[in-house]
Design goal:
Blueprint: E1 18-19, E2 23-31, E3 35-42, E4 48-55, H1 56-61, H2 65-75, E5 86-91, E6 95-101, E7 106-107, H3 108-114, H4 119-138, E8 141-142, E9 151-153, E10 159-161, E11 168-169, H5 191-195, H6 201-218, H7 228-237, H8 248-257, H9 268-273, H10 275-278, H11 290-296, H12 309-314, H13 317-322, E12 338-344, H14 348-361, E13 365-369, E14 373-378, E15 382-392, E16 398-408, H15 415-423
Antiparallel strand pairs: 1-2, 2-3, 3-4, 4-6, 5-6, 7-9, 8-11, 9-10, 12-16, 13-14, 14-15, 15-16
Helix pairs in contact: 4-6
Length: about 425
């Protein structure tokens, strides 16, 4: 495999070149203060993926634990053809790994930096962006960091929105109906954020969309100055010049997108009706994911699960498990405890009985046993504690959650990884390959 292509960055250690015996890491795609993104290949199905590697300690020290959990929580819900898909999340003691859809075309920023786009091409990408923004807002998600660097392209040159690390959701809105966290990238930040009086997340995203459309059409940003305070003054007063080659229809739309007054700024619904925007616009069609189908069923108690089978085949285990109401991220930053989840078609009773048999077979002691839960411990050569809990997902599938705490007294095999886990492999339900 090729070495990392970023100068000065160390290649992964041999143990890290294949993550979790599945993802073969090749080279570095990019990096930030808290994460690095690598190109990799799924050894199971040969698909190309991007893996975002997050250093746990840096996140904890930076006070960003809640941001990472929120990003996972948001991305697992979003299913739109113009949003980079989160395939699954993996973790060990030191790092968290986001396995993401790979956008082969790279950043839209790199294309605009070479040359401005035609009005026709600018409109096409803006239409895809607004489709994403409208979709997210309808689900109570506000991106808050939309910029050219966070817009990628796939192999067919279609837009892919990424990086929901600064996103907000409706439950973060205060009693005044506004968000108050100051965030975003300076050149894209809306004037109401600078005023620090609270802001509407939807209106902030629209402002950023206006900055992006302006840049696509002109090849440069509307508000840009080496002096940050001067740039902020221009943003607050709405001081920018639209290039002379811009059509009157686009000029009108840009003036409404970059309206410094959020109350009169154009909305998504109004954008969809705009004459310039509507040219050649085709509403994005995509299938409802399992979560929406599940939530909209009129009688879940009588369902046999047959109507879910086409969706289950199209999703991997992470997709299905994260749609469970019992999914949580509380153990993600707890280094004292390992957590694993898998799907099973076996009955909860059979699963618990299997766990008990395997545990007792390797010398562990059952201390608690209920219908859908069991706790086992061990003290010989290791301090070991394991809780296995079964939760119903559909009439045919259950989620098995395993929580393990283990500290070795002497070197040797790990109890969970080398002795208990192999004995439970027959319970695992294999879904189709992640698509």
């Amino acid at each position: 495999m090729p070495e990392l292509k970023h100068a000065g960055d160390e290649p992964p250690s041999p143990a890290e070149k294949t993550l979790f015996k599945r993802y073969e890491i090749s080279y570095l795609l990019g990096y930030g203060a808290f994460a690095k993104v690598y190109y990799a290949r799924d050894a199971h199905n040969k698909e190309h993926v991007a893996i975002k590697v997050i250093n746990k300690q840096k996140i904890i020290k930076g006070g960003l634990t809640a941001n990472v959990k929120r990003e996972i929580s948001i991305m697992r819900q979003l299913r739109h053809p113009n949003i980079v898909r989160l395939r699954e999340v993996l973790a060990n003691k030191k790092k968290i790994y986001f396995v993401l859809e790979y956008a082969r075309g790279g950043e839209l920023f790199a294309k605009v930096a070479k040359s401005r786009f035609s009005e026709h091409l600018s409109r096409r990408y803006f239409q895809q962006l607004i489709s994403v923004v409208g979709y997210c807002h309808s689900r109570g998600v506000f991106h808050r960091d939309l910029k050219l660097e966070n817009l990628l392209l796939d192999e067919k040159w279609k837009l892919k929105v990424t990086d929901f690390g600064l996103s907000a959701v409706t439950n973060q809105i205060r009693n005044d109906g506004l968000l108050h966290t100051v965030c975003g990238t300076p050149a894209y930040v809306a004037p109401e954020i600078l005023l620090k009086n609270g802001y509407d997340g939807a209106k902030v995203d629209i402002w950023s969309c206006g900055i992006i459309l302006f840049a696509l059409n002109s090849g440069y940003l509307p508000f840009n100055d080496s002096n940050l305070m001067v740039m902020y003054r221009k943003i607050l007063t709405g001081e920018f010049r639209i290039p002379q080659w811009t059509s009157p229809e686009l000029k009108r739309l840009l003036s409404r997108l970059l309206d410094t007054n959020p109350v009169t700024r154009i909305t998504v619904d109004e954008i969809l009706k705009d004459p310039w925007f509507k040219i050649g616009y085709e509403e994005v069609e995509f299938h409802h994911d399992y979560l929406e189908l599940k939530d909209n069923r009129s009688d879940t108690s009588s369902s046999t699960g047959d109507e879910l089978k086409p969706y289950l085949k199209a999703m991997n285990a992470f997709d299905i498990i994260t749609f469970s109401s019992g999914y949580d991220l509380s153990g993600l930053f707890d280094d004292r405890e390992d957590r694993e989840r898998f799907l099973s078609q076996d009955s909860p009773e059979k699963i618990i009985e299997t766990v008990v048999a395997v545990a007792e077979g390797v010398g562990l002691t059952v201390v608690v046993k209920k219908e859908w839960c069991v706790k086992v411990v061990g003290g010989y050569k290791c301090n070991f504690e394991m809780v296995v809990e079964v939760k119903r997902l559909t009439d045919e599938l259950v989620v098995v959650e395993v929580r393990v705490r283990e500290s070795e007294v002497e070197t040797g095999n790990r109890m969970w990884k080398d002795k208990v886990k192999p004995g439970l492999s027959g319970l695992v339900y294999e879904t189709g390959p992640a698509g």
